[in-house]
Design goal:
With 505 residues, the protein is α/β, with parallel strands linked by helices. 32% of the residues lie in helices and 24% in strands. The model is unreliable at 1-7, 373-378 and 500-505 (pLDDT under 50).
């Protein structure tokens, strides 16, 4: 989406010299930002760079300690989100703020319900909600649906509709795709583009560089609370962004691949494996090796992970670990066989958010080995140190950690059972570039220690940069194998089922 027509136009929002301190620590320092009607402005940077703080100052959640905010009609100073909303500025937070037991319409008009004869006018509220949903092209959602029955993507739609109900002119979105599947991401892209068609200015915070370039007209990079650069999207590359954010190019994020001489015995072998979703899966991973598993949404990547780990077991074929056949009929059997599975849904499946770091680290060990591990904290400090978790103490609740540190706790939880085979599904989803590099180093270190790793990722640069080989899935089968460092085009040819392996290579 190339930027056009900025010259000579006045911004809807002009932020100048924004400074903010928390407990004496400077988190924003003299930051400038302009937002234009009908355009997406991406705000990127590592965790702690100040992105969310700048967004919250604009939306009235925080007050700036220095600098000014001007709308196209004059200077403003918001002390509450309601004041910002009255001026046409709304925010969609990463953690959605909806009431699950209330209907879509009740959430959209919460606090501003239409009234008729002293009573809430439900008919009008539902009709207005239906009109907003139709205007955004959001099919499949009824104003009367309870929010708890909606998917994460549909809840995002409700948050956007809620903002539109108050005549929004500027919409800030904080990591809106972090919890979405690939097909749901496309739905959100369409909504964002429709917002632009309505001349709404969108401030978009994301760690996913692919979507930043897919959606944005301009990109602003923050580092350590300061402005690094603000340029048109088509003037920057992915390497440029990574260099601005972390001070090194994209290729430098990935550790060196394993040499053939460093690989050991075959840790995991699947032969002719299948179930209702998968057919004839043949796969081998050696000690010290990272094998990437690529494919489009629904091709069967995650289904392979769930089958190997006993959540949705194979019904045909054989599974061997270190040369011995195993019958993996449950996750507990998988763990006891030396197989670990880091799921793609960190918060929904990977963590008990209201429990401590210590309890999360011991969760699998206790569940798989019962009384032999219950009540012990042996090795927790060493595990947390090995994965470089930053927390106040092992007793801190996991929900208060950053996304990157939460992911490290998930990895520590599985390292606690000393796996020989580790399957990681979207291991860096929703975490910043710096935290990604820490995860990459950790995975490569585990491989060097003899663990066989299968890595699933929707980010092709990441999968290509980390893998010693790449297997590509299509329609429930492995369509082909590519050596280390294939092109994205080669992967996509196999993923779409158009060519044979030899042609793709």
């Amino acid at each position: 989406m190339a930027v056009t027509g900025l010259t000579g136009r006045e911004p809807v929002v002009r932020m100048r010299g924004i400074t903010k301190r928390f407990l004496g620590n400077v988190v924003l320092r003299d930051v400038d930002l302009d937002l234009y009607a009908g355009e997406v402005h991406a705000l990127v940077g590592e965790n702690g760079a100040g992105k969310s703080t700048l967004m919250k100052i604009l939306a009235g959640v925080h007050a700036a300690d220095g600098g000014s905010v001007e709308l196209d009609w004059g200077p403003v100073s918001f002390s509450t989100p309601r004041q910002a909303q009255a001026a046409g500025i709304s925010i969609v937070h990463q953690e959605l703020n909806l009431l699950g037991d209330r209907s879509v319409a009740e959430n959209v008009f919460l606090g501003s319900e239409p009234v008729r004869r002293g009573m809430v006018d439900r008919r009008r509220m539902e009709a207005d909600t239906a009109a907003l949903l139709e205007d955004l092209g959001a099919t499949g959602i009824s104003p009367r649906d309870p929010v708890r029955r909606l998917s994460v993507a549909q809840r995002q739609v409700v948050e956007i509709v809620k903002a539109l109900s108050s005549d929004v002119r500027v919409l800030a979105m904080d990591e809106p795709t972090a919890a979405l599947a690939d097909n749901e991401v496309e739905l959100l892209y369409g909504l964002v583009r429709r917002l632009c068609d309505r001349d709404i200015a969108v401030l978009y915070v994301s760690h996913r560089l692919v979507e930043v370039f897919e959606l944005s007209h301009r990109i602003t990079v923050l580092k350590d609370g300061a402005l690094v650069t603000s340029r048109a999207s088509d003037e920057l590359t992915g390497d440029d962004l990574v260099r601005h954010m972390v001070g090194r190019p994209l290729e430098a994020l990935f550790p060196s691949r394993a040499a053939e001489s460093e690989l050991g015995v075959t840790r995991l072998r699947l032969s002719g494996c299948g179930n209702e979703r998968l057919r004839d899966i043949d796969l081998e991973v050696r000690a010290g090796e990272i094998v990437g598993l690529a494919g489009l949404q629904g091709a069967g990547r995650s289904a392979v992970a769930r089958a190997v780990c006993g959540s949705e077991p194979f019904t045909t074929g054989t599974v061997e670990v270190d040369g011995s056949p195993v019958r993996v009929r449950s996750p507990r059997v998988a763990v006891r066989s030396g197989i670990a599975h880091v799921t793609e849904d960190r918060k929904g499946e990977g963590l008990a958010l209201r429990q401590s770091v210590r309890d999360n680290t011991l969760l699998v060990r206790r569940a798989a080995f019962g009384g032999r591990a219950r009540g012990t904290a042996v090795g927790v400090s060493e595990l947390l140190q090995a994965v470089t978790v930053v927390a106040r103490s092992p007793e801190q609740e996991v929900r208060f950690l950053s996304g990157g540190n939460q992911q490290k706790v998930v990895l520590a939880k599985w390292l606690a059972v000393e796996p020989r085979v580790l399957i990681v599904d979207e291991p860096t989803r929703g975490i910043d570039v710096g935290a990604k590099q820490a995860v990459y180093e950790l995975l490569r270190g585990l491989a060097r220690d003899g663990v066989a790793i299968v890595m699933i990722s929707s980010e092709l640069p990441e999968l290509i940069g980390m893998s010693d080989r790449v297997l590509v899935m299509h329609d429930g089968r492995i369509a082909g194998e590519l050596p280390a460092g294939p092109t994205e085009e080669a992967v996509m040819r196999l993923a779409t089922g158009h060519v044979a392996t030899e042609e793709a290579a």
